[in-house]
Amino acid sequence: MKKEIKTKKIINTILKIINNLLTYTFLIVSNIIFCIIYYILRVLKEVNFYELKFTLTNNLSGTGDEMITDGIKICFPLFILLAFIMIIPITKSKKTQIYIETKKRNINIYPLKLNKIKIIYALIILIVSIVALGKTIKYDKYLETINKTGDIYEVYYTDTNEVEITFPEKKRNLILLYLESMESSLASKESGGAFDISRIPELEILALNNLNFSNTDKIGGGYNLDLTAWTMASLWSTTTGTPLASNMSENYKNYEEYMPNVNALGDVLKKEGYNLEIIQGSVKEYAGVDKYYKTHGNYQIFDVKTAKERKYIDEDYSQWWGYEDKKLFEYAKKEIETLAQKEEPFAISIFTMDTHFVNGYLDSSCATNFKDQYSNVYACSSKMVNEFINWIKTEPFYENTTIVVIGDHLTMQNEYYDNYKDYERTIYNAFINTKTKPIKNKNRKFSSLDMYPTILASLGAKIKGEKLGFGVNLFGEEKTLIEELGKEKFNEEISKNSEYYNNKILKE
């Protein structure tokens, strides 16, 4: 009898542990998922699943800690509330009798709280949360699109290796400045933006006084497409005229080179004898940036590790995503001065980060004229960029240098535009001191893909046929594919599975 009681207690304890472990694990995971949904709906408003997939399957070293802490801060109260609500139904649950058959008799294991019912309850909550998340991140739309095979590459794509590109005898330097999450939308309504008071006054004037390709007759810009809407996708599209398809997001880590079959901007400039360099405040490994630039042009890369190696900052220094933009422009000046002393032309790409969501990084030197931090961050970035460009204009190399300033994509912090939902947001651009003049730069419909041939044309390069990849030279009069097919149709077609892409672009 004692042996039976002991066995009963052991089994009862094990079942209780398993039951509780599964139940509370399901509930905690469900709670986390509901919090993620809440964060998406409150801050991001909507999610591009292609971007999400790329982010989750790639090297995220160097990601700003502020993104994580902000997410926890926003979601923690909801997490506590949901935890309380979810636990209430199982705290006063009925007891269930369970019998274990033996050769002699049935052993009644009692009391054991809610064995089957408790787990089923938790499992239902988990399933509901997963389905809700799938709907929120538009996973169903993603599956529907990629399971279709399209022929847009066969019909419209221009192989970047087969296009003749001719440079002028005297080659111009290129300073390509990528501004994180910079939109034309941030300008004043008077100039074509969304706001009564401009969040980027200096960049607004820069666009007005120089060349701005626009979707309107005022300051405007290019459209965000699903496969160009995050930093690495923007970098790739603006320098190759090619989308960063979803299957690339999980495959590049397996390759020694980053899609070497594409003839990118760096490949073209390297062949023409340019000295190439990039400078950024984050680590170069993030999202495969280092692999891309080594494959396509063998750029010199200056990142936060370089700054530490040169003793510009302490070994344990960490601000935002590495070091802040104030230091970025300081270091960029030194790098440009070094490049300018060489006989060969130079091309340097510079990436800002202060304006990354959530709410950006507000430097202690920045003014706080607006009520919200993100507006102050944008205003400060505008001022820093303008001061940097003004410095370039005072240097002797400026006469033979073209400056291209482009936003990489729209901000992902869509809550910032809650009061401007009827405004059509576009990505900022300004071309300064170009060799070529456009036939028509206003009322154009284009995307980041069109920047590749347009950047080359701004240096005075002649592109036979005016097309590279899906990109069309905006200085010319050829219609872009968005102008020809429409934005929604073009966006849908390039998102489909493509045998051409898989066999000729993605494979080594």
What's the topology here?
Layout: H1 2-44, H2 49-56, H3 65-91, E1 95-101, E2 106-113, H4 116-136, H5 139-146, H6 152-156, E3 165-166, E4 173-179, H7 201-209, H8 231-240, H9 265-271, E5 275-280, H10 289-295, E6 300-302, H11 304-309, H12 325-340, E7 346-351, H13 373-394, E8 401-407, E9 429-432, H14 451-458, E10 462-463, E11 467-468, E12 471-472, H15 481-485, H16 487-495, H17 499-506
Parallel strand pairs: 4-7, 4-8, 5-6, 5-7
Antiparallel strand pairs: 1-2, 3-10, 8-9, 11-12
Helix pairs in contact: 1-3, 1-4, 7-13, 8-14, 12-13
Plain-language structure description:
This protein has about 500 residues and is α/β, with parallel strands linked by helices. The protein has 2 domains: about 1-145, no CATH class; about 160-480, 3-Layer(aba) Sandwich (Alkaline Phosphatase, subunit A). Helix content is about 45%, strand content about 10%. Strands 6-5-7-4-8-9 form a 6-stranded mixed β-sheet, with helices on both faces. The longest helix has about 45 residues, at about 1-45. Mean pLDDT is about 85; it is low at about 95-105 and about 105-115.
List keywords for this structure.
12 strands, 11% strand, 17 helices, alpha/beta, 6-stranded mixed β-sheet, Alkaline Phosphatase, subunit A, two-stranded antiparallel sheet, 508 residues
Task: Sum this structure up briefly.
The chain is α/β, with parallel strands linked by helices and 508 residues long. It is 43% helix and 11% strand. The protein has two domains: 2-146, no CATH class; 158-482, Alkaline Phosphatase, subunit A, CATH 3.40.720.
